[in-house]
């Protein structure tokens, strides 16, 4: 899924775990958990999008489905932001 119809400019995708180099066991576990959560959300978003399209094509009201889908999208964005926060300090150190 490359984009969505609800205005998020963020690409929805699965990605690998950020580099574990120099991280504590607690950080590695947290990163692993966040990546797993993100991947589960990607699957749910993809499945939900397909369901919404099928229901829409069948003439069904999809308003509640779309509202739930957007909530999932916001959860996905939050997880991606949390993952990005793990990388920001490392990039600042490299630049400095």
Give the helix proportion (percent range): 55-70%
Continuous helix count: 2
Order of helices and strands: HH
Tell me the distance between the termini.
Answer: 36 Å
- By secondary-structure content and strand pairing, the structural class works out as mainly alpha
Please tally the β strands and state the result: 0
Unreliable stretches (pLDDT < 50, length at least 5) are: none
Assign an overall shape. elongated
Overall number of domains: 1
Radius of gyration: 16 Å
Main β-sheet description? none
Output mean pLDDT: 81
Explain this structure to me?
The protein has one domain (25-95). By secondary structure, the chain is mostly helical. The mean pLDDT is 81. The protein has helices at 25-57, 63-95.
List the helices and strands and how they pair.
Elements: H1 25-57, H2 63-95
Helix pairs in contact: 1-2
Salient structural properties:
mainly alpha; 69% helix; 96 residues
Provide a compact summary of the structure.
With 96 residues, this protein is an all-alpha fold.
């Amino acid at each position: 899924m490359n984009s969505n119809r609800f205005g998020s400019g963020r690409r929805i995708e699965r990605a690998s775990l950020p580099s574990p180099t120099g991280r504590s066991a607690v950080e590695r576990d947290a990163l692993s958990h966040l990546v797993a959560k993100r991947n589960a959300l990607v699957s749910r978003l993809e499945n939900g999008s397909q369901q919404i399209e099928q229901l829409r094509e069948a003439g069904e009201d999809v308003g509640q489905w779309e509202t739930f889908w957007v909530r999932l999208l916001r959860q996905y964005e939050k997880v991606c932001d949390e993952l990005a926060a793990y990388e920001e300090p490392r990039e600042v150190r490299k630049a400095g």
